[in-house]
Amino acid sequence: MSNRSFEDQVEEANNVSVDGWDFSWLDGRAIEERPSWGYQKSMGERMGRATAALDIQTGGGEVLAGIPIVPSICVATESWPPNVAKATKLLNQRGIVVVADEDQPPLPFADESFDLVVSRHPVKAYWDEIARVLQPGGTYYSQHVGPDSVSELFLFFLGPLPDRVDNRTTEIARKGCEAAGLKIVDLRLEELCTEFYDVGAVIYFLRKVIWMVPDFTVEKYMPKLREMHEIIQKEGSFKATTRRFIIEAVKPAQA
């Protein structure tokens, strides 16, 4: 819990840059429990064994930049222009090519181009496209956001959403993956704790993860932010449940 005034927290969090997919600004302001599989390390191990790899929706490239060994061919896609610029600057120095691409099919690559396709928190997985660009015997490895993740936070601001349906379930992912002809090797969901220690952390998070409260602005939600600040001052933090699942699938080798 911060001792800084509500006004100071709001001003700082509303003006700091939210480009890229690096959340280090939240250090000391919020914590998010990490899944047991350790995505960056496990993804990096697979990258070390790959010859041609693709990272879909790389964000600012921060996760991909941390891999120990870069495959001979390594490409990343990203749609948001500020992230494209940031990822290009970060990843080109490691020999990784960044392609600006809308998060819609088709992927701008030939059939069977990659033996490894990865993605961390894809907005949507287009399974047919993933299967198309994978080589026979190739692997898809991804950490997805699970259903109703951090729902306590967006429900606080938006109230009950009776018509809301969250399709980010493991069962829907399984069906889409298998329908595209991929064979699932691993599929696990974990529920994890997230805590925000000041209202500035909440503002930063909602400015960065724009689909959480799509119409969020500090001005529009000032009364709710004051209420959030009071809750944190009283209870020490605002807690929410994060859901993540890992999915690993293989494209069967041709007969």
From TrEMBL:
Q: What is the recorded name of this protein? A: Methyltransferase type 11 domain-containing protein
Species lineage, top-down? Eukaryota, Fungi, Fungi incertae sedis, Mucoromycota, Mucoromycotina
- A Pfam match: Methyltransf_11
Looking at the record, the residues that make up the Methyltransferase type domain are: 54-141
Q: In which domain of life is the source organism classified?
A: Eukaryota
Q: Which InterPro entries match?
A: 23S_rRNA_MeTrnsfrase_RlmA (IPR052939), Methyltransf_11 (IPR013216), SAM-dependent_MTases_sf (IPR029063)
Tell me where the transmembrane regions lie: none
Q: Which SUPFAM superfamilies does the entry link to? A: S-adenosyl-L-methionine-dependent methyltransferases (SSF53335)
The GO terms describing molecular function are: S-adenosylmethionine-dependent methyltransferase activity
